[in-house]
Amino acid sequence: MTITQGRLLIKLIDRETQNTSYDLIRQYKGGLTAAFWQGIARIFGTNLKEDYDPYGEDAIIESIVRDMEAGAF
Q1: DSSP one-letter code for 11
Q2: Which residue of 13, 21, 31, 47 has the fewest C-beta atoms within 10 A of its own C-beta?
Q3: Which DSSP symbol is given to 41?
Q4: Would the pLDDT of 26 be above 90?
C-alpha cells in the first residue's frame, strides 16, 4: 500500500465508522498502541486523529464515493 492509499483508507474508515482510526486503535488495542501508530503516521505525514470532512477538504472523495454508491462507475 502506498502512503497516498493509506491516507485515503484512513479517511474512508472515518467516513464509514464515524470514528477516527486513532480512536478505533485505542478502543481495540489500547492507548499505548494507538500513540505508537499515531507516531508512525506522523513520520509519513498523516494524522490518525484527523476527521473526515465531506463538505471541505474531503469533498472530492465524498463526490466519488457517492457516485460509486449510485452505480455511476
Answers
A1: H
A2: 31
A3: H
A4: yes
